[in-house]
Design a protein that fits this description.
274 residues; 4-stranded parallel beta sheet; 15 helices; elongated
Amino acid sequence: MNIKCFIQDQILLPRLKKSGVLAVYDPDHLYHELCLDMATEKIRVIDTSESSIESREESLKTLRSLGNSKELEGMLVYVPAKAPLSDEEKQVDPFSIYSACGSVFPDGAGDEYMHLCLKAKPDHSTEIRRIFKENPLPTFAVIDALGGGSGWPNLQVILGVESARDILFALLVPSDRQKDSLKENETWVSEAKELFDTCIGLKLITRGKTWSSIGDELWRFLLYSEFVFDLPESLPDSLSNVPRAPEEAKHLVEDLCDRLRNDRRTQSVYIDRA
């Protein structure tokens, strides 16, 4: 699912169906086309971009129709401005009434553009954070291009898991069945190299093609990265060139380590490796 469809189907439509009225505030004009494309026979979209007076009249007319019509199920009001926060701002904003009687987007930090992209493509969280660090408003096309839609099919089949996070976890502490599957062929090795580089910035040095050699390097990289992230001050110069995960991968590294520590099945392995 591309980011446009994700925002439409997973974020905006559920709110619209729940409340019947949704006000979308968009000062950066990111969601303009996306909102207009949501118009159907049952959903009326009012674009306030061009004429404030006409759009006010149309919004009020639609709101009245919404209460009396069986055919109309919802209305979305698109406002190319920041959402009013204070009572004073809401009094000045002619469209704040629609968020008051319905729902509003964005609503909290979880609706920030980067967080929506992270929800839509959780397997590419490191790349997404890197992209947003360089450009706070990347286009939908840039986000959709992540991963190229290929995934890691051999790893998914061999390990019996789907997400990149679960694949990494399985490669750190594979079950006996997973170890046997990894031994049976080497088709997963090239995918693992791509996965490591994409998700945590690890460029494998070992030329080994066994889980043992690759797993050892993955563990060293992960634990050292966690150590660096936990430091209260900058690294000594003598350690600055030791490979570690970039800042953008911090959330994933910490999540994996927390999971390894808190899962009773893997606690002892984590302690031994650490």
